[in-house]
Amino acid sequence: MSYAIGIDLGGTNIKAVAVNEDGDVLARTSAPTHGDGVADEDGAAVARNVARQLAALETEVGRTAAAVGLAAPGLVARDGRSMASISGHLESVEGLVWAEYLGGRAPALLNDAHAALVGEVWRGAAAGARDAVLLTLGTGVGGAVLAEGRLLRGHLGRAGHLGHMCLDVDGARDSLGIPGTLEEAVGNRTLPERSAGRFRSTAELVAAYLAGDAEAARVWLRSVFQLACAVTNIINAFDPEVFIIGGGVARAGRALFDPLAEYLDGMEWRPQGHRVRVVPAALGDAAGALGAARNAEQSSSGSSNQQ
Predict the structure, then answer these.
(1) Pairing of strands 150-151, 75-76
(2) Which of 1, 135, 146, 287 measures 20 to 30 Å from 113, CA to CA?
């Protein structure tokens, strides 16, 4: 049976899986993105680290993969050979032609949030869905949209960057210059500012909230309310059957999903009483690699838009 390899290139780690056509994991590997003394600015060395993970998986499986996919934060170039725009600790791989480092094999490239949604629809929380949305809540906020069975990529690949949705026209501007965004409202990066320097991580904030701290409750529930506003906007825009929330912030569990459900009860438009299922992501750190493998498999069969 043929198999595909999916590689999720993150700013900290490279996660890769070998999966068969049914989505069963045959082998997996993980390694530091900048391991062995690789500097942030050395994109070629990062690419060689990726190549080593690819080779390790093929050695473990015992045969060559039929397709290879790679997911990374940023926008895929129109020719599909490189990431045209990428930020953070991976700026050095922007424009890098991956086939030159993978023995001439051109991987199917995909934005990492897009890949995570593909994975969740294939084997995770939205298995079998044709209309789904994913939000990843972490340091920032990423997202992706599946509509009528097709991943929305958009003209330049920007589709699904839902964290930059404006919720407050008078709010502070985010990294793109957009005022009052969802990312500013719930991302870990702005938590110290939102909590007047008291909390450094969502885990700390949620622990204080669960312990009955009134100020922690105010900060946390304000963030969840703003998230509910964004979820409602997104539901009205894309009409999903399932709405997945993942990322580090989602590890808050019921402390997040219970108040979120209460807020949605008061603002979600529910024709004929239909409510959208809002669920936690199921695949964790494996979602991006699985989605990259699925995208590679479908790209090689000529059905890359259909998930």
Answers:
(1) unpaired
(2) 1
